[in-house]
Amino acid sequence: MSRKPSVLITGASGEIGHALISRLFAEDRDRPIVTLDLNPLPAESAAKVRQAVSGSILDTALLDGLLAQYEVDHVYHLAALLSTRSEFSPALAHKVNVEGTLNLLEFAQKQGESHGRPVAFFYPSSIAAFGVPDLDTKARAGKVPEDDHNVPTTMYGANKLYCEHLGRYYARHYKQLAAEAHSGRVDFRCVRFPGLISAETVPSGGTSDYAPEMIHAAASGQPYACFVRPDTRIPFMAMPDAVDAIFRLMEAPREKLTRTVYNIGAFAPSAAQIEEVVRRAFPRADITTKVDEKRQGIVDSWPADVDDSAARTDWGHAPQYDFASAFGEYLIPSIKKRYA
Ligand code: AKB
Protein backbone atom coordinates (compact mmCIF):
# COMPACT_ATOMS: atom_id res chain seq x y z
CA MET A 1 0.00 0.00 0.00
CA SER A 2 1.46 3.39 -0.96
CA ARG A 3 -0.35 6.69 -0.52
CA LYS A 4 2.55 8.54 -2.09
CA PRO A 5 1.85 9.96 -5.54
CA SER A 6 2.79 7.04 -7.77
CA VAL A 7 3.36 6.26 -11.43
CA LEU A 8 1.70 3.39 -13.30
CA ILE A 9 3.30 2.09 -16.50
CA THR A 10 1.51 -0.53 -18.59
CA GLY A 11 3.41 -2.50 -21.22
CA ALA A 12 6.51 -1.71 -19.21
CA SER A 13 8.49 -4.65 -20.58
CA GLY A 14 8.46 -3.21 -24.07
CA GLU A 15 10.98 -0.93 -25.77
CA ILE A 16 9.67 2.41 -24.55
CA GLY A 17 9.01 1.05 -21.04
CA HIS A 18 12.61 0.03 -20.62
CA ALA A 19 13.91 3.51 -21.49
CA LEU A 20 11.14 5.31 -19.62
CA ILE A 21 11.70 3.43 -16.34
CA SER A 22 15.42 4.30 -16.40
CA ARG A 23 14.70 7.98 -16.92
CA LEU A 24 11.84 8.17 -14.35
CA PHE A 25 14.04 6.43 -11.78
CA ALA A 26 16.97 8.73 -12.53
CA GLU A 27 14.80 11.84 -12.14
CA ASP A 28 13.05 10.88 -8.89
CA ARG A 29 14.04 7.77 -6.95
CA ASP A 30 11.42 8.40 -4.26
CA ARG A 31 8.44 8.29 -6.56
CA PRO A 32 7.01 4.76 -6.52
CA ILE A 33 6.75 3.17 -9.98
CA VAL A 34 4.26 0.35 -10.47
CA THR A 35 4.33 -1.63 -13.71
CA LEU A 36 1.76 -3.87 -15.33
CA ASP A 37 2.69 -6.27 -18.10
CA LEU A 38 1.95 -9.81 -19.21
CA ASN A 39 5.68 -10.38 -19.60
CA PRO A 40 8.17 -10.21 -16.75
CA LEU A 41 10.19 -7.02 -16.43
CA PRO A 42 13.87 -7.36 -17.34
CA ALA A 43 15.95 -7.51 -14.14
CA GLU A 44 17.53 -4.11 -14.80
CA SER A 45 14.10 -2.43 -14.89
CA ALA A 46 12.65 -4.55 -12.07
CA ALA A 47 15.31 -3.19 -9.72
CA LYS A 48 13.98 0.32 -10.27
CA VAL A 49 10.28 -0.21 -9.62
CA ARG A 50 8.22 -0.54 -6.42
CA GLN A 51 6.05 -3.35 -7.79
CA ALA A 52 6.09 -5.21 -11.09
CA VAL A 53 2.63 -6.70 -11.51
CA SER A 54 2.25 -9.59 -13.95
CA GLY A 55 -1.14 -9.33 -15.55
CA SER A 56 -3.38 -7.98 -18.24
CA ILE A 57 -4.82 -4.53 -18.83
CA LEU A 58 -8.06 -6.39 -19.62
CA ASP A 59 -8.27 -7.64 -16.03
CA THR A 60 -10.47 -4.99 -14.40
CA ALA A 61 -10.34 -6.72 -10.99
CA LEU A 62 -6.56 -6.39 -11.08
CA LEU A 63 -6.87 -2.70 -11.99
CA ASP A 64 -9.36 -2.19 -9.14
CA GLY A 65 -6.80 -3.75 -6.78
CA LEU A 66 -4.14 -1.27 -7.94
CA LEU A 67 -6.65 1.54 -7.55
CA ALA A 68 -7.13 0.61 -3.89
CA GLN A 69 -3.43 0.09 -3.26
CA TYR A 70 -1.81 3.15 -4.84
CA GLU A 71 -2.39 6.85 -5.29
CA VAL A 72 -1.53 7.05 -8.97
CA ASP A 73 -1.27 10.51 -10.50
CA HIS A 74 0.74 9.63 -13.63
CA VAL A 75 -0.20 6.87 -16.07
CA TYR A 76 1.98 5.87 -19.01
CA HIS A 77 -0.20 3.50 -20.98
CA LEU A 78 2.26 1.80 -23.31
CA ALA A 79 0.69 -1.66 -23.67
CA ALA A 80 -0.40 -2.43 -27.23
CA LEU A 81 -0.25 -4.94 -30.05
CA LEU A 82 1.75 -3.30 -32.85
CA SER A 83 0.74 -2.97 -36.49
CA THR A 84 2.00 -6.19 -38.09
CA ARG A 85 0.95 -8.37 -35.17
CA SER A 86 -2.50 -6.73 -35.11
CA GLU A 87 -3.18 -7.65 -38.75
CA PHE A 88 -2.88 -11.33 -37.83
CA SER A 89 -5.30 -11.06 -34.88
CA PRO A 90 -7.49 -8.00 -35.47
CA ALA A 91 -10.15 -8.87 -32.89
CA LEU A 92 -7.51 -9.47 -30.21
CA ALA A 93 -5.80 -6.22 -31.24
CA HIS A 94 -9.07 -4.35 -30.79
CA LYS A 95 -9.51 -5.91 -27.34
CA VAL A 96 -6.02 -5.04 -26.16
CA ASN A 97 -5.59 -1.71 -27.92
CA VAL A 98 -9.09 -0.27 -27.46
CA GLU A 99 -10.75 -2.06 -24.53
CA GLY A 100 -7.43 -2.02 -22.68
CA THR A 101 -7.12 1.74 -23.19
CA LEU A 102 -10.70 2.29 -22.08
CA ASN A 103 -9.93 0.33 -18.89
CA LEU A 104 -6.91 2.52 -18.20
CA LEU A 105 -8.83 5.73 -18.86
CA GLU A 106 -11.53 4.52 -16.42
CA PHE A 107 -8.77 3.70 -13.93
CA ALA A 108 -7.34 7.21 -14.28
CA GLN A 109 -10.79 8.81 -13.99
CA LYS A 110 -11.48 6.88 -10.75
CA GLN A 111 -8.02 7.69 -9.36
CA GLY A 112 -8.58 11.38 -10.11
CA GLU A 113 -11.99 11.29 -8.42
CA SER A 114 -10.53 9.56 -5.39
CA HIS A 115 -7.51 11.80 -4.73
CA GLY A 116 -8.98 14.97 -6.22
CA ARG A 117 -6.11 15.81 -8.58
CA PRO A 118 -5.99 15.37 -12.35
CA VAL A 119 -4.19 12.23 -13.45
CA ALA A 120 -1.65 12.95 -16.16
CA PHE A 121 -2.18 10.24 -18.77
CA PHE A 122 0.44 9.65 -21.45
CA TYR A 123 -0.73 7.79 -24.53
CA PRO A 124 1.62 6.81 -27.34
CA SER A 125 -0.20 7.04 -30.63
CA SER A 126 1.59 6.49 -33.90
CA ILE A 127 2.11 7.54 -37.50
CA ALA A 128 -0.07 4.47 -38.13
CA ALA A 129 -3.04 6.74 -37.33
CA PHE A 130 -2.50 8.20 -40.80
CA GLY A 131 -3.58 6.57 -44.04
CA VAL A 132 -2.24 8.13 -47.23
CA PRO A 133 -4.11 6.68 -50.22
CA ASP A 134 -1.22 6.24 -52.71
CA LEU A 135 2.44 7.00 -53.31
CA ASP A 136 1.77 10.10 -55.45
CA THR A 137 -0.28 11.62 -52.64
CA LYS A 138 2.42 10.61 -50.14
CA ALA A 139 5.10 12.39 -52.21
CA ARG A 140 2.92 15.49 -52.62
CA ALA A 141 1.80 15.57 -48.96
CA GLY A 142 5.33 16.04 -47.55
CA LYS A 143 5.13 16.81 -43.83
CA VAL A 144 1.59 15.82 -42.89
CA PRO A 145 -0.18 17.78 -40.10
CA GLU A 146 -2.15 15.98 -37.39
CA ASP A 147 -5.60 16.37 -38.88
CA ASP A 148 -4.88 15.37 -42.50
CA HIS A 149 -5.16 11.88 -43.96
CA ASN A 150 -6.74 10.34 -40.86
CA VAL A 151 -7.93 7.24 -42.71
CA PRO A 152 -5.68 4.42 -41.47
CA THR A 153 -5.68 1.09 -43.29
CA THR A 154 -4.58 -1.07 -40.35
CA MET A 155 -6.42 -2.33 -37.29
CA TYR A 156 -3.62 -0.89 -35.12
CA GLY A 157 -3.88 2.51 -36.82
CA ALA A 158 -7.67 2.54 -36.44
CA ASN A 159 -7.29 1.56 -32.78
CA LYS A 160 -4.77 4.34 -32.14
CA LEU A 161 -6.88 6.99 -33.89
CA TYR A 162 -9.99 5.99 -31.96
CA CYS A 163 -8.12 5.96 -28.63
CA GLU A 164 -6.84 9.47 -29.35
CA HIS A 165 -10.51 10.48 -29.49
CA LEU A 166 -11.35 8.47 -26.37
CA GLY A 167 -8.60 10.29 -24.48
CA ARG A 168 -9.87 13.68 -25.65
CA TYR A 169 -13.38 12.64 -24.58
CA TYR A 170 -12.23 11.72 -21.05
CA ALA A 171 -10.19 14.91 -20.77
CA ARG A 172 -12.78 17.35 -22.04
CA HIS A 173 -16.29 15.90 -22.34
CA TYR A 174 -16.61 12.96 -19.92
CA LYS A 175 -20.25 12.54 -18.79
CA GLN A 176 -21.11 15.93 -20.24
CA LEU A 177 -24.83 15.54 -19.47
CA ALA A 178 -24.38 14.78 -15.75
CA ALA A 179 -25.50 17.43 -13.25
CA GLU A 180 -22.00 17.71 -11.78
CA ALA A 181 -18.88 18.28 -13.84
CA HIS A 182 -16.83 15.09 -14.20
CA SER A 183 -14.33 15.93 -16.91
CA GLY A 184 -10.84 17.24 -16.22
CA ARG A 185 -9.84 14.35 -13.94
CA VAL A 186 -7.87 12.79 -16.79
CA ASP A 187 -5.20 15.07 -18.22
CA PHE A 188 -4.75 13.17 -21.49
CA ARG A 189 -1.54 13.89 -23.40
CA CYS A 190 -0.64 12.05 -26.56
CA VAL A 191 2.07 12.02 -29.19
CA ARG A 192 2.06 10.23 -32.50
CA PHE A 193 5.42 8.48 -32.47
CA PRO A 194 7.30 7.84 -35.68
CA GLY A 195 9.23 4.56 -36.00
CA LEU A 196 11.50 4.31 -32.95
CA ILE A 197 15.06 3.01 -32.98
CA SER A 198 16.75 1.96 -29.76
CA ALA A 199 20.33 0.84 -29.27
CA GLU A 200 19.26 -1.41 -26.41
CA THR A 201 16.21 -3.30 -27.60
CA VAL A 202 14.78 -4.71 -30.84
CA PRO A 203 11.04 -4.19 -31.30
CA SER A 204 8.69 -6.98 -32.32
CA GLY A 205 5.39 -6.99 -34.14
CA GLY A 206 5.74 -3.57 -35.80
CA THR A 207 6.02 -2.61 -39.46
CA SER A 208 8.59 0.15 -38.99
CA ASP A 209 10.83 -2.57 -37.53
CA TYR A 210 12.98 -2.83 -40.69
CA ALA A 211 15.24 0.02 -39.52
CA PRO A 212 16.05 -1.30 -36.02
CA GLU A 213 16.19 -4.89 -37.32
CA MET A 214 18.70 -3.93 -40.03
CA ILE A 215 21.12 -2.25 -37.65
CA HIS A 216 20.88 -4.85 -34.86
CA ALA A 217 21.32 -7.70 -37.40
CA ALA A 218 24.39 -6.04 -38.93
CA ALA A 219 25.95 -5.44 -35.52
CA SER A 220 25.36 -9.01 -34.38
CA GLY A 221 26.67 -10.55 -37.63
CA GLN A 222 23.26 -11.84 -38.76
CA PRO A 223 22.05 -11.64 -42.37
CA TYR A 224 19.05 -9.35 -42.90
CA ALA A 225 16.49 -9.24 -45.70
CA CYS A 226 14.80 -5.84 -45.64
CA PHE A 227 11.07 -6.20 -46.34
CA VAL A 228 10.54 -2.77 -47.94
CA ARG A 229 11.76 -1.14 -51.16
CA PRO A 230 14.91 1.02 -50.92
CA ASP A 231 12.94 4.21 -51.73
CA THR A 232 10.53 3.66 -48.79
CA ARG A 233 10.45 6.67 -46.49
CA ILE A 234 8.78 7.23 -43.11
CA PRO A 235 9.82 9.31 -40.08
CA PHE A 236 12.01 7.79 -37.38
CA MET A 237 13.35 8.90 -34.00
CA ALA A 238 16.10 7.74 -31.66
CA MET A 239 14.77 6.30 -28.39
CA PRO A 240 16.37 8.94 -26.09
CA ASP A 241 14.50 11.64 -28.02
CA ALA A 242 11.25 9.67 -27.72
CA VAL A 243 11.65 9.53 -23.93
CA ASP A 244 12.66 13.18 -23.87
CA ALA A 245 9.49 14.06 -25.78
CA ILE A 246 7.39 12.15 -23.23
CA PHE A 247 9.01 14.12 -20.41
CA ARG A 248 8.64 17.49 -22.10
CA LEU A 249 4.99 16.88 -22.91
CA MET A 250 4.17 15.56 -19.43
CA GLU A 251 5.92 18.50 -17.76
CA ALA A 252 4.33 21.19 -19.93
CA PRO A 253 1.84 23.50 -18.19
CA ARG A 254 -1.65 22.42 -19.17
CA GLU A 255 -2.62 25.89 -20.41
CA LYS A 256 0.15 25.77 -23.02
CA LEU A 257 -1.33 22.71 -24.70
CA THR A 258 -3.59 23.63 -27.61
CA ARG A 259 -4.23 20.00 -28.58
CA THR A 260 -4.46 16.59 -26.92
CA VAL A 261 -2.60 14.85 -29.78
CA TYR A 262 0.72 15.99 -31.26
CA ASN A 263 2.82 14.79 -34.19
CA ILE A 264 6.50 14.49 -33.36
CA GLY A 265 9.30 13.93 -35.85
CA ALA A 266 13.09 13.91 -35.96
CA PHE A 267 14.41 12.58 -39.29
CA ALA A 268 12.91 10.77 -42.27
CA PRO A 269 15.44 8.67 -44.20
CA SER A 270 14.68 6.21 -46.98
CA ALA A 271 15.41 2.52 -46.38
CA ALA A 272 18.34 2.90 -48.81
CA GLN A 273 19.84 5.71 -46.71
CA ILE A 274 19.53 3.59 -43.58
CA GLU A 275 21.20 0.67 -45.34
CA GLU A 276 24.02 2.95 -46.50
CA VAL A 277 24.90 4.16 -42.98
CA VAL A 278 24.62 0.66 -41.57
CA ARG A 279 26.97 -0.69 -44.28
CA ARG A 280 29.43 2.12 -43.62
CA ALA A 281 29.53 1.19 -39.92
CA PHE A 282 29.52 -2.58 -40.51
CA PRO A 283 31.24 -3.18 -43.86
CA ARG A 284 30.66 -6.94 -43.63
CA ALA A 285 26.89 -6.55 -43.13
CA ASP A 286 24.86 -9.04 -45.16
CA ILE A 287 21.82 -6.94 -46.13
CA THR A 288 19.49 -7.84 -49.00
CA THR A 289 16.04 -6.63 -50.02
CA LYS A 290 13.09 -9.03 -50.18
CA VAL A 291 9.98 -6.92 -50.47
CA ASP A 292 6.94 -8.16 -48.60
CA GLU A 293 4.25 -6.48 -50.72
CA LYS A 294 1.68 -6.57 -47.94
CA ARG A 295 3.86 -5.00 -45.26
CA GLN A 296 5.15 -2.59 -47.92
CA GLY A 297 1.54 -1.50 -48.49
CA ILE A 298 1.22 -0.61 -44.82
CA VAL A 299 4.43 1.44 -44.76
CA ASP A 300 3.43 3.17 -48.03
CA SER A 301 0.21 4.30 -46.33
CA TRP A 302 2.18 6.12 -43.63
CA PRO A 303 3.43 9.65 -44.33
CA ALA A 304 6.98 10.30 -45.52
CA ASP A 305 7.27 12.86 -42.71
CA VAL A 306 5.11 14.71 -40.20
CA ASP A 307 4.49 18.38 -39.46
CA ASP A 308 5.38 18.67 -35.77
CA SER A 309 5.25 22.45 -35.51
CA ALA A 310 2.49 22.38 -32.85
CA ALA A 311 4.65 20.18 -30.57
CA ARG A 312 7.64 22.48 -31.08
CA THR A 313 5.60 25.59 -30.31
CA ASP A 314 3.41 24.34 -27.46
CA TRP A 315 5.84 22.26 -25.38
CA GLY A 316 9.26 22.66 -26.92
CA HIS A 317 9.68 19.39 -28.81
CA ALA A 318 13.33 19.54 -29.86
CA PRO A 319 14.91 16.22 -30.79
CA GLN A 320 18.61 16.13 -30.08
CA TYR A 321 19.42 13.63 -32.85
CA ASP A 322 19.10 14.12 -36.61
CA PHE A 323 19.75 11.24 -39.01
CA ALA A 324 23.55 11.61 -38.99
CA SER A 325 23.94 12.02 -35.23
CA ALA A 326 21.31 9.39 -34.33
CA PHE A 327 23.42 6.79 -36.13
CA GLY A 328 26.89 8.30 -35.70
CA GLU A 329 26.68 9.36 -32.05
CA TYR A 330 24.02 7.15 -30.50
CA LEU A 331 23.04 3.97 -32.37
CA ILE A 332 26.28 2.75 -33.92
CA PRO A 333 28.60 3.33 -30.92
CA SER A 334 26.12 1.88 -28.39
CA ILE A 335 25.16 -1.08 -30.56
CA LYS A 336 28.80 -1.89 -31.32
CA LYS A 337 29.50 -1.98 -27.60
CA ARG A 338 26.42 -4.09 -26.94
CA TYR A 339 27.36 -6.82 -29.42
CA ALA A 340 31.14 -6.65 -28.89
C1 AKB B 1 4.64 -0.24 -35.74
O1 AKB B 1 5.40 -0.40 -36.71
O2 AKB B 1 3.57 -0.82 -35.58
C2 AKB B 1 5.04 0.80 -34.71
C3 AKB B 1 4.46 2.13 -35.03
C4 AKB B 1 4.92 2.86 -36.22
O3 AKB B 1 3.64 2.59 -34.31
N1 AKB B 1 6.46 0.88 -34.62
Structure, explained:
This protein is α/β, with parallel strands linked by helices. It folds into two domains: 2-194 and 238-263, Rossmann fold (3-Layer(aba) Sandwich), CATH 3.40.50; 196-236 and 266-305 and 320-339, Alpha-Beta Complex (UDP-galactose 4-epimerase, domain 1). It is built from 13 helices and 13 strands. Strands 3-2-1-4-5-7-11 form a seven-stranded parallel beta sheet, with helices on both faces. A two-stranded parallel ribbon has the order 6-13. Helix 1 (15-27) packs across helix 9. It is globular. The chain starts with a strand and ends with a helix. The mean pLDDT is 96. The structure holds 2-amino-3-ketobutyric acid (AKB). 2-amino-3-ketobutyric acid (AKB) is lined by residues 82-83, 126-128, 156, 193, 195, 206-208. Residues 82-83, 126-128, 156, 193, 195, 206-208 line the site of 2-amino-3-ketobutyric acid.
In short:
This protein is an alpha/beta fold and 340 residues long.
Using the CA coordinates, give the radius of gyration: 20 Å
Q: What's the overall average pLDDT, rounded?
A: 96
Structural class: alpha/beta
Total number of β-strand segments? 13
Strand order of the largest sheet: 3-2-1-4-5-7-11
- Shape annotation: globular
Note the gap between the termini: 43 Å
Low-confidence stretches: none
Q: Which assembly state applies to the chains in this document?
A: single chain
Query: Which ligands does the model contain, each kind named once?
Result: 2-amino-3-ketobutyric acid
Provide the CATH architecture of the largest domain: 3-Layer(aba) Sandwich
The first-level CATH class name of the largest domain: Alpha Beta
Helix percentage range: 40-55%
Query: Which band does the percent of strand residues land in?
Result: 15-25%
CATH superfamily assignment of the largest domain? NAD(P)-binding Rossmann-like Domain
How many independent structural domains?
A: 2
